[in-house]
């Protein structure tokens, strides 16, 4: 399978699934940080040592770890063009860190893009599983079985008292970070999120923007994840996170209902204005695009907007990131050129959607 | 003090950010804090490593205080990767798995701060590396049992337990020798 396939399809195959609570939860993710016992951690190792790790991966990791995910393909960062790497970041398949700071970084990707195993990032291995909707346990089980698969081939750095040893002491113990990506437009609109975030922080959980640490919450998309990795079992961490996310989902649903009941016309106005901007603009910045896409997605979820598929927010948010735009244009673009390209792309994508829905209506009649 | 954002309302929130040694102070009112968002607690934009090294630096003196030379004399380096504790506090990351042993005596307070008071792992144990650990845990249990038997003067049972411990320990030394 070629890299081209990964990139030409902006939407990872798993994103097309509609998981549980998909009106609010976009995806669930579990990642394990693991290190090799006999090597120094990647932040200190030299190229030679990192190459050895990659060599080991190349020769040992050839079998299929799990029937459901298919084969894993090894992509080395050195072999990729800058735009291709950026696209992988925008799809949440690799971290910025892997591109910017790692020596001889690589990633093992599964065909459906559910699994990505980063090699030589901050830790030797970062096993990540991404699934659609609110399905933390599914993501955890998959990551867990991949962890067993890798452990059958290499010696992990593990200490009886401290658990899995990681480069950063914030990951030590389970080495596990579980997170859920949520679309929370109603909680933002009603300014309730400002009160919810501190409460969540007190429970050992963190709320961030969609591209992780230090990123802004574009399009009202937030990521909630565990902060504590030591002293709790993996199951407890997952269950605690699940419990909190369930409450946030309930609050978001209640806020959406309240908006519909109390200010339906204002809400409709907002949604249709945003749809109008997306359908007609010729220059649009990523921030505005994200805001409008979030409004339209809310409109779809509340049944105000018909004829558009739910996945449009996820898809267009990724498609309109700088890396993807340039991939489409086949060249690097100035910020203004990007804003023009972005507007064109959104218009074309919506047009395609309307044609498809008209066609399916015709088929039904 | 008035809010530095709007210059109208009194500043009720005071933040001190220290990023890479650069100190910035922010004094704003609640309304502006909400509007700015980034000043809200929990939505700070700097990375965990910066935050962490902030925590770590707390334990070592900053600047040219006489105490610093004392710390320098005491400096231990990790025998495997060569990193010093001071380097660790700067980058917020360890260099290798042995660092956890080298800096063990300084680790508990750090882990407590980051992991809600926890210092010991209770989760998954890897199957292969774990086999030895399971036996080790068993031996420890048996040892304390043996002590109990001796205290109760049940020497026969104590001897039985000792034999079990011996056979278990032999097994691990074989596996270790492979």
From TrEMBL, chain A:
It catalyses: L-arginyl-[protein] + ATP = N(omega)-phospho-L-arginyl-[protein] + ADP + H(+). GO terms for molecular function: ATP binding; creatine kinase activity; protein arginine kinase activity. Residues 24-255 form the Phosphagen kinase C-terminal domain. GO terms for biological process: phosphocreatine biosynthetic process. ATP binds at residues 27-31, 92, 126, 177-181, 208-213. CDD domains: bacterial_phosphagen_kinase (cd07930). Gene3D superfamilies: Glutamine synthetase/guanido kinase, catalytic domain (3.30.590.10). A motif (RDXXRA motif of the pArg binding pocket involved in allosteric regulation) lies at residues 338-343. GO terms for cellular component: extracellular space. Keywords: Allosteric enzyme, ATP-binding, Kinase, Nucleotide-binding, Transferase. Transmembrane segments: none annotated. It comes from the Bacteria. It is an enzyme of class 2 (transferase). HAMAP family: Prot_Arg_kinase. Catalyzes the specific phosphorylation of arginine residues in proteins. NCBIfam families: PRK01059.1-4 (NF002194), PRK01059.1-5 (NF002195). This is Protein-arginine kinase.
TrEMBL record, chain B:
Residues 136-171 form the UVR domain. It comes from the Bacteria. GO terms for molecular function: cadmium ion binding; cobalt ion binding; copper ion binding; zinc ion binding. InterPro entries: UVR_dom, UVR_dom_sf, YacH. One of its GO terms (biological process) is stress response to cadmium ion. This is UVR domain-containing protein.
């Amino acid at each position: 399978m070629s890299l081209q396939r990964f990139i030409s399809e902006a939407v990872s195959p798993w994103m097309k699934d509609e998981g549980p609570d998909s009106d609010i939860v976009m995806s669930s993710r579990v990642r394990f940080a693991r290190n090799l016992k006999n090597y120094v951690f990647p932040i200190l190792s030299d190229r030679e040592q990192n190459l050895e790790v990659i060599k080991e991966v190349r020769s040992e990791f050839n079998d299929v770890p799990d029937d459901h995910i298919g084969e894993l393909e090894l992509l080395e960062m050195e072999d990729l063009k800058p735009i291709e790497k950026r696209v992988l970041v925008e799809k949440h398949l690799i971290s910025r860190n892997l591109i910017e700071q790692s020596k001889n970084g690589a990633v093992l990707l599964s065909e459906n893009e559910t699994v990505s195993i980063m090699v030589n990032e901050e830790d030797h291995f970062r096993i990540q599983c991404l699934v659609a909707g609110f399905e933390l346990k599914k993501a955890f089980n998959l990551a867990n079985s991949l962890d067993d698969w890798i452990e059958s081939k290499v010696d992990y750095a593990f200490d009886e008292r401290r658990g899995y040893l990681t480069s950063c002491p914030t990951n030590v113990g389970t080495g596990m970070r579980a997170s859920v990506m949520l679309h929370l437009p109603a909680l933002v609109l009603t300014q309730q999120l400002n009160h919810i975030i501190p409460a969540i922080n007190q429970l050992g959980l963190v709320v961030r923007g969609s591209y992780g640490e230090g990123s802004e919450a574009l399009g009202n998309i937030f990521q909630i994840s565990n902060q504590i990795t030591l002293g709790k079992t993996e199951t407890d961490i997952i269950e605690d996170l699940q419990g909190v996310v369930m409450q946030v989902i309930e609050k978001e649903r209640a806020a959406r209902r309240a908006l519909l009941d109390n200010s339906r016309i204002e809400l409709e106005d907002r949604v249709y204005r945003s749809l109008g901007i997306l359908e007609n603009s010729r220059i649009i910045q990523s921030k505005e695009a994200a805001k409008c896409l979030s409004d339209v997605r809310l409109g779809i979820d509340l049944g105000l907007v018909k004829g558009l598929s739910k996945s449009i927010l996820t898809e267009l948010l990724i498609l309109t990131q700088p890396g993807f735009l340039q991939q489409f244009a086949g060249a690097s673009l100035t910020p203004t050129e990007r804003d023009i390209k972005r507007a064109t792309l959104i218009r074309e994508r919506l047009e395609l959607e309307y044609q498809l829905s008209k066609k399916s209506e015709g088929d039904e009649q | 003090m008035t809010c530095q954002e709007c210059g109208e309302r009194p500043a009720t929130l005071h933040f001190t950010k220290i990023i890479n040694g650069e100190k910035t102070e922010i004094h704003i009112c609640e309304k502006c804090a909400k509007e700015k968002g980034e000043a809200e607690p929990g939505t700070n934009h700097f990375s965990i490593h910066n935050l962490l090294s902030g925590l770590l630096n707390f334990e070592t003196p900053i600047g040219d205080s006489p105490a610093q030379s004392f710390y320098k004399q005491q400096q231990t380096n990790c025998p495997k990767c060569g990193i010093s504790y001071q380097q660790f506090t700067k980058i917020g990351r360890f260099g290798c798995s042995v660092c956890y042993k080298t800096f063990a005596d300084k680790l508990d307070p750090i882990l407590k701060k980051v992991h809600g008071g926890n210092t010991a792992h209770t989760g998954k144990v890897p199957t292969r590396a774990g086999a030895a650990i399971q036996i080790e845990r068993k031996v420890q249990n048996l040892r304390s049992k043996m002590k109990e038997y001796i205290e109760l003067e049940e020497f026969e049972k104590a001897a039985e337990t000792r034999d079990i411990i011996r056979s278990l320990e032999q097994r691990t030394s074989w596996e270790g020798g492979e």
